[in-house]
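Protein modeling request. Please complete all fields; requests missing the sequence field cannot be processed.
Requester role: graduate student
Desired output: 3D structure, token encoding
Chains: 1
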Amino acid sequence: MMTNKGNNNIFDIFEPKSGHKGRFVAKIKQKQQKKRLIFLQKWAVAISFLLLFGLGIDFYNKQNNQAKTAPEVKQNEMYFSAIINQEIKEIKSIKTSETSSVFNDALKQMSMLEKAYQKLLKDYQKNNDKYILSAMIENFNQRIEILQFVKQQIEEIKQTKNEQNETYKA
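Delivered output (170 residues):
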């Protein structure tokens, strides 16, 4: 038997205050939410780390691919760009107001070929395939052919105009 020396409340035999159950459940939910928040924060940090790591690897691979393609692609780009720039320079020196529409059309075609070239370059950096490199060279050849054709057209237009002028003079 237990002896009670002045402490009548050894056991709590009274009913809890009203709303006790609600407060108790709210505290439990609050602790669970804190645990869930901490758990989610840890996952967010982990996912962020993995994302940054993945982006770093992707960036490294792109740099590495560009370094791999630099010798053969850069050499071709320099060679063909010099030829193309020379052709454009010659066309600009012979074009007139009557032939400017032919030249402007050629520039539009050149722009489309440049976009196609950029796509080929990306593909080449991913695959490093000799067929893609051949397509890139063909792209440059098409540009040169367009410019040579435009130069020929401008010369023909000028010659036709000169012949018409001579016919009117005679």
